[in-house]
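User: Hello! I'm new to structural biology and keep hearing that structure can be predicted from sequence alone. Could you demonstrate with Phosphoribosyltransferase domain-containing protein? Please show me the input and the output so I can see what each looks like.

Assistant: Of course. The first part below is the input, the amino acid sequence of Phosphoribosyltransferase domain-containing protein. The second part is the output, the predicted structure written as tokens.
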Amino acid sequence: MGIFILQEHLADNESHWIERCKSSSMETGYRLRQAHYALGVHMGSAIYTTNPNQSKFAVWILMRAGLPFGLGIADGLEEQGCDVAVYFIDKQIDNDTLASVNTRTIILADAVINSGKSIERICTILPEIVKQSMIVATTVMPSNAVSQFEHFNLMTVRVSSNQYQGAKVNTIQNGKGPDTGDRLFNTL
């Protein structure tokens, strides 16, 4: 268990993807989805490298903000020759998704972890043995939330000293900032 920070392993010419993802970049739509996807591909390669004895994965994508990042992870793993199944999680986890824990290493992918409530909601229904091998992957999380994930295999693109609640706003102020899902899909 521990934390892997992808930013520490990216080449200098790849850091523009991270800059594009930051709320302060004001990027939305295609260019933001492209950045999330590209970072997902890099994360998929990192997951493969750090889990050399695994070849079967199930990417559980938290909808909707996790979609580009999660698909990038799946494609990054498939590029390495892994067998990858992709599942989409909205409010409920269906039986097919739950059954994937029996034969695959689970990667729970979300664009942003703020409070961790979405991750915890899913983990409450999983057996302890699954949680111990599961990988939680995200593009960013606040530094003050890292400690609550020390019992997980956590892989993040970066850790930020900033934290705010996603809302339908265009600027960061009063503890609120542009919702990542809204930025990704131009619904601000």
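User: So the tokens describe the shape?

Assistant: Right, they're a compact way of writing down the 3D structure. Reading them back into a model, for example: The chain has seven helices and eight strands.
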